[in-house]
Amino acid sequence: MTEQRVVWAPQPGPQTALLQCPIFEVFYGGARGGGKTDGMIGDWLQHSSLYGEGAIGIFVRRNRTQLSEVIARTKTLFRPLGAKYNETKSEWLMPSGARLRFVYLERDSDAENYQGHNYTRVYIEEVTNFPAAGPINKLRATLRSGTGVPVGLRLTGNPGGPGHNWVKARYIDPDPRGFKIVAETEAVELSDGRSVTVSLERVFIPSKIRDNPRLLDGQPTYLLQLRQTGSETLVRAWLNGDWDMIQGAYFDDFSPDRHVYSSSIVLPKHWTRFRAFDWGSAKPFAAGWYAVADGDFGGYPRGALLKYKEFYGWNGTPNVGLKMNATAVGKAVRLRDLEDEKQGFHISYGLADPSIFAEDGGPSIAESMLAGGCQWARADNKRIPGWEQIHLRFQADIPLLYFSEACEHTIRCISSVQHDENKPEDLDTEGEDHIVDETRYACMSRPMLTDRPIAKPSLVYPKSVQEMNFNELVARNRKNRLAKADA
Fold first, then answer.
1. Which candidate, 136, 139, 150, 159, places its Cα nearest to that of 206?
2. Which of helix, strand or coil describes residue 148?
3. What average pLDDT does range 438-442 have in this prediction?
4. Please, what is the Cα angle at 107 between 104 and 108, to 5 degrees?
5. How would DSSP label each residue in 170-209?
6. N or C: where does the chain have the smaller number of CB atoms within 10 Å of the terminal CB?
7. CB 343 within 8 A of CB 291
8. Residue 112 — very low, low, confident or very high, per pLDDT cuts 50/70/90?
9. What pLDDT was estimated at residue 468?
């Protein structure tokens, strides 16, 4: 009798639940060290052994470096089984005839190369590295089998990354505790005229480091290593899968307790008011309305900016726009101006991304918006100084930037945008940053004291603010952020 050798077995808990899960779409993990990659590999071992040559899989990561680590792990596990790896195709041929291919998608458009392919399993690792759900949706469409093999989408990820918002909305928000099955149903008319209701189900299976005792047994110092990162927010996100305490958030100095005010507060009519705008079509556009405090109401310092209203052009999916034409957007913004005017408010000026003034063989976006009744001036589009202005306002002893709780998209996005890996003093432009850009234009229109000339010397701040050494604060903040990004 030939002795069987077990090369891999699921650990009790989430990994076992993953392999037993019959649901079409599974998001697995949500914290660091939870055994996510091994769970995906184990799912493939089970799937390929059950369905043989009818099993065809594709394993996807965002870049080649991450993919090479996964391939190395599969070589350890698959070769003892007699599987053959084709280096040219980056593809395993299992003894049963099943095939698993490895690909990376550096650009969202790369997913289009797989249209027309048929797979029974699609594995997408670190899905929060994808800024939008578009590539995932394209790969979802490749899941089909002509031989009746059950198909499934399996994804992993941690909090943070440019795709944090859409992943959280799709998989975490229905129930952060996990294991809640969400079904999308639709009526489909068959060729014989009958109408049937079909549904696709998805579920979040949480897995944390405590669910991966093999890692802790083999490397007992791992928890201590994570805790020594020096960032409480980072550690909480990694260890607890906390999707509200976001790993690597650029504006880690933003606090809802300090910087969000009740929408029931009625701001004085005589305060200066203005608006700012960032254009988007396929991606969201964003408009925000601001009031400038005079120091005599509500404890808000003179010169503080309060965003009291926003208009966000998304279709309900994070980072996906409405594709409205510029004239229609201009009319919609103007209607919101009229709401203010009816209450006795006056909009003094409006600032927008200078790119909307570009002419390319026809009217510019700014001209088209003007046709809708909405006029803009060019905003100061400097990125790093603009982010510095937001940081300075957040970090002042008495904050100088506030958002109404009604500005839900501002609060959601400014708390989740990430550092750019290649330029840590800037934020990642692949994320959902449109409403954050609009906020930057607003702050740059009324800049605080920095190491460059003040653009509006008439702007006066209270004594407590004037006595602060902002040049020193700028240097210290920049140094701290670079140190965190390097860590």
1. 159
2. coil
3. 98
4. 100
5. IIITT-TT----EEEEEEEE-TTS-EEEEEEEEEEEE--G
6. N
7. no
8. confident
9. 37
Instruction: Work out the end-to-end distance of the chain between its first and last CA atoms, rounded to an integer number of angstroms.
Output: 54
Contact present, 390 and 253 (Cβ < 8 Å): no
CA diameter of the chain: 91
Tell me, letter by letter, the H, E, C secondary structure of 98-113.
CEEEEEECCCHHHHHH
The angle, 0 to 180 degrees and rounded to 10, between the axes of the packed helices 64-78 and 36-51 is 50
* pTM of the predicted model as reported, rounded to 2 decimal places: 0.67
pLDDT of residue 418: 82
Distance separating alpha carbons of residues 306 and 403, to the nearest angstrom: 6
**pLDDT score of 230 more than 80:** no
What is the DSSP track for 231-297?
-HHHHHHHHH--SSS-TTBTTTT--HHHHEE-TTPPPPTTSEEEEEEE--SSSPPEEEEEEE--SSS
What is the three-class DSSP state of 404?
strand
- In angstroms, the CA 127 to CA 166 distance is 10
Q: At what angle do helices 383-395 and 470-486 cross, to 10 degrees?
A: 110
Sheet strands side by side (includes 377-378): 260-261, 401-404, 305-312, 286-292, 272-278, 347-352, 377-378
**Considering the chain, what is the average pLDDT of its residues?**
85
CA-nearest of 140, 71, 397, 434 to 280 is 434
Tokens of 256: 């809802």
Asked if the model's pLDDT at residue 486 lies above 70, the reply is no
Confidence of residue 96 (pLDDT cuts 50, 70, 90): very high
Cα separation, 189 vs 408, in Å, equals 39
Six-digit token pair at 207?
Answer: 């897995």
Buried b (16+ CB within 10 A) or exposed e, 192-227: eeeeeeeeeebbbbbbbbebbeebeeeeeeebeebe
Task: Report the alpha-carbon distance of residue 49 to residue 55 in Å, rounded.
Answer: 9
Mean pLDDT of 294-308: 96
CA distance 419 to 428: 5
